[in-house]
Specification:
The structure holds 2 protein chains of 2 kinds.
Chain A (H helix, E strand, L loop, with lengths): L3 E3 L27 E6 L13 E9 L2 E11 L16 H9 L9 E6 L14 E2 L5 E9 L5 E3 L2 E11 L15 E12 L2 E3 L3 E7 L9 E2 L3 E11 L7 E9 L12 E7 L3 E7 L3 E3 L3 E11 L3 E14 L6 E14 L7 E7 L9 E4 L3 E13 L4 E11 L6
Parallel strand pairs in A: 6-15, 18-25
Antiparallel strand pairs in A: 1-2, 2-3, 3-4, 5-7, 7-12, 8-11, 9-10, 9-14, 13-14, 14-15, 16-17, 17-19, 19-22, 20-21, 20-24, 23-24, 24-25
Chain B lengths: L4 H28 L3 H12 L9 H28 L3 H7 L6 H18 L4 H11 L6 H15 L16 H22 L9 H24 L5 H18 L3 H14 L2 H6 L1 H7 L9 H18 L4 H6 L2 H15 L5 H18 L4 H15 L8 H18 L2 H5 L4 H5 L4 H18 L6 H10 L1 H4 L12 H17 L5 H15 L7 H16 L1
Helix pairs in contact in B: 1-2, 1-3, 2-3, 2-5, 3-5, 4-5, 5-6, 5-7, 6-8, 7-8, 7-9, 8-9, 8-10, 9-11, 11-14, 13-16, 14-17, 16-17, 17-18, 17-19, 19-22, 22-25, 23-26, 25-27, 26-27
The chains are: A mainly beta, B mainly alpha.
Amino acid sequence: MLLIARPLMHIGIVVEVETFEKGKFAFASMAETKLLITIIAKTTFPCCIQNKAFELGFECRSMNYLIGAFKPTCNISITFADGKSRNQCTRKSLMVALMNLNFGMSSLLAVGITIPLKKENGQTAMVPLFQSQENIVGKVSVEPIPGKKIEHNGVKLELLGQIGSTLDVVALEMYFDRGNFYDFTSLVRELDVPGDIYERKTYPFEFSAVEMPFESYNGVNVRLRYVLKVTISRNYASSIVEYQDFVVRNYTPLPSIDNSIKMEVGIEDCLHIEFEYNKSKYHLKDVIVGKIYFLLVRIKIKNMDLEVRRRESTGSGANTHVETETLAKFELMDGAPVRGESIPIRLFLSPYELTPTHRNINNKFSVKYYLNLVLVDEEDRRYFKQQEITVYRLPETP
Amino acid sequence: MILDGAEEEEKWLAEGIAGLQHNAFYMHRALDSNNLRDALKYSAQMLSELRTSRLSPHKYYELYMRAFDELRKLEMFFKEESKRGCSVIDLYELVQHAGNILPRLYLLCTVGSVYIKSKEAPAKDVLKDLVEMCRGIQHPVRGLFLRSYLSQVSRDKLPDIGSEYEGDADTVMDAVEFVLQNFTEMNKLWVRMQHQGPVREKEKREKERNELRDLVGKNLHVLSQIEGIDLDMYKETVLPRVLEQVVNCKDELAQYYLMDCIIQVFPDEYHLQTLETLLGACPQLQPTVDIKTVLSQLMERLSNYASSSAEVLPEFLQVEAFAKLSNAIGMVIEAQVDMPVVGAISLYVSLLTFILRVHPDRLDYVDQVLGACVKKLSGKAKLEDSKATKQVVALLSAPLEKYNDIVTALKLSYYPRIMEHLDNGTNKVMAVVIIQSIMKNNTCISTADKVEALFELIKGLIKDLDGTLVDEFDEEDFMEEQNSVARLIHMLHNDDPEEMLKIICTVRKHILTGGPKRLPFTVPPLIFSALKVWF
């Protein structure tokens, strides 16, 4: 087993890593410092990491440690002895695998948070759903494993709204604490004073009229999420933490003014079109209705598509990172039109995974939508015109 | 191995059919297990085969027919589905989620058919939406077949009067609008084919266009079947709109075919009542259109209509059919300076036939036509074109056959002048025809004037005309000709001896110009006629 330790801050730490068998993971130093350790592992992890060395950053807190951020740095090949379950895995399941490196905590107790669920249809996983200004009410139940008791220094419940980069995200959500997520909202309830828990204890809680101005968003580079976090602090052991995600969606009524988009564009002596979209603001289950009118056609057009594109930008200034995705590619026309032809548009948005437009959320990110009209000629040259639209979430009719 | 064009196409067609059947198989499975999602998925994939650009219309049609058959099964499924699971309105939306336009529109038309049948929306609304949305296909062949599909599935669902899909007050107009719009778009696509591709392939393109013409013409047929269209609607709306498209498309092939179509599918009664409009379009057509054939067709139909019953004849008079036709023909001949003589003459033959059926008593009309012919023939020497000659003979024979009386024909002032334009051989033939007509009908020619006129007509037999070549002399023919003249002389008779004398003198005058060869034939019958006078 090999390791390379690279100090981050000013403290030099030497870390030795033994074999990475499941359940055996020893670290030398326990100091409340952030460490960056590059691990080149020949492991028996039930997954294969292709040519990557990972940096594990973690926080050490009084003899215990938690895993923090997780970033790829260089390409190194790693193979695993366990061939049977060797498969490609996403970061997420890698983390799940690492999780199974039994830090010993979760086996001690089962922590459950229950909330009266607002079900969300169509989702594969049932997630509670809320709107801003709603009351979030429920109970936390802590149940020790039979025979064990928990001595604790207090039980607290936090409601957090967080924005973070998915590049840094560890899907080890349970072990997730600060790291690269930024809390824009934080509410606390102290559930219990220091004491012992011998048997199942239930703590009711209520957060009234919670301000959740931003909706949950799961993007390419950025996530905005809401989570309830239970923390049981202990003196001689690490805290026990449990998370429960919930989804926030905010609704916008029908806009009072919603102008159509009508524009004439073209290339001199080549192609002139006038396009028209019936609105500039569309809700998630709306229909884009419009038409394309050909004023001048001197090129040989093969076909015409309308794309819906999402542009997610994170960061600001020099550090702005933009990710563009084409969510829909809808063919409007097959064949070459002549001057005077008018081609109808009717594009239903419901089949596509759109979200509402997010503008400069907490100065951290934006999500914008564009209609991109694309004409392709016989020589596969593409002519396009992009137009921003606003997408919003309309309250569902009961 | 390099395949030639036809083999390549066969190969692609086979591939297309294979792909189609492959997806159809999975579609059937989905239909059997009531799996709407998969049914839509596989039907869309199946229809993607119709996106090909590689097939000529003839081969594309084969692929299309298979898709058509499969879509009938899908339509039945949709009908069942709308009763049990997904409403037809939801289905109508669902099929529009398909990303590729051609499959999407075929599916939409199929659901549209079910939608109309369900009566959950007025037929006119669904039809209007469908015919509009089909604009998305601008490729000529694919567009033509798609719209043809639309026409086929909507045929029995038009909101015609008396149909179960009848709508409100304007119901027939809605049906007409739908068909007219589909027709207009189809014609546009069809004409567009003419200008696609390189110049050297023009012939091939025209052949392909001809293969597709019935798809366009079918719309006119559908129009003619709409019960609710009465004469007024035809006159005010249907015909003007159709003609507008025909004239504006400025395409020779389309114009010729569609004019012919109009004449064939709509009732003759309507043609009579819209004669002016119909004829008015003719000069607006492309100069290369064979309009004379179109006019001839029209006149033939009208002539037949006139013969069908005596009750319709007054209508002809009322609409002044002859005047209009005559004018139209005159204008066409004037406009098409390069029209060969045979074309003009055949037009006049058609017109003459028309007159003889409709206005047999109007000798002045007949003479007018003959006069116009003379005008056309003037300036030329003898006719040499055998086709034109045939037409002239037909022109001259028609009155004879109709009237069965040479006396009537003799009243036609232009008749002899036309004969003058025939070459000598044909002239003699015509003369014999005249004589035969007299013999057949036992016509008695009883005045010297008539005899004079008659002998002028048949002068080709009486004497050697200028330019007769000695080589043309045929013993047998000559004998026959002179014998018929001899027989003719026997038909000349008047009980009044004075008149008879005049007749004999007239005949004598003419036959004496015949020369020694003829006299042995012609003199004896004259002597006998003379003797009859005195005995």
